[in-house]
Amino acid sequence: MYKKFQIESKVKSLRVVEKAIDETTNELGISSDDYGKILVSTLEGVNNAILHGNHSDPEKKVESIRAIYDDLDIRLHAENKAYEYINKAFESLEAVSVQAERKNELKQLTVGLIGRNR
User: What does DSSP assign to residue 98?
Assistant: First the structure.
């Protein structure tokens, strides 16, 4: 997953970065705890680039590249965490006192939802 965009070297441009982080983490299914960590660290890095690297000169652009998510394997980590929770859910379902065919219906629905595209 790769997105590339430019923002002006203005602090108000951080809103654009925040929106991109919101969209990206939502697409990847990142947990709210991890979202917060990604948001804070990314905004801090971009803010430092604006203030210290470009001295808030609006003529200079800050290139924000989503490749950092690929470098950190965020998608892989998010998918692994999702499957961890899915496995826990299936384990919990097994503990429920319900007929096996009823559980199978729920399992089939779950598997279908897991494989769907957003």
Answer: S
Q: pTM of the predicted model, to two decimals?
A: 0.51
Tell me if 17 sits within 8 A of 43, measured CB to CB: yes
Whole-number Å distance between alpha carbons of 62 and 11: 11
Residue pLDDT, tens place only, 92-117: 888 888 888 888 888 888 777 776 54
Which residues partner with 6 through β-bridges? 63
* DSSP single-letter state for residue 97: -
Q: Which helix (H) or strand (E) holds 16?
A: helix 14-28
Q: At what angle do helices 100-115 and 74-95 cross, to 10 degrees?
A: 170
102 with 34: CB under 8 angstroms?
Answer: no
> Where are the chain's structural domains?
4-72, 77-115
Q: Angle at CA 51, nearest 5°, toward 46 and 57?
A: 105
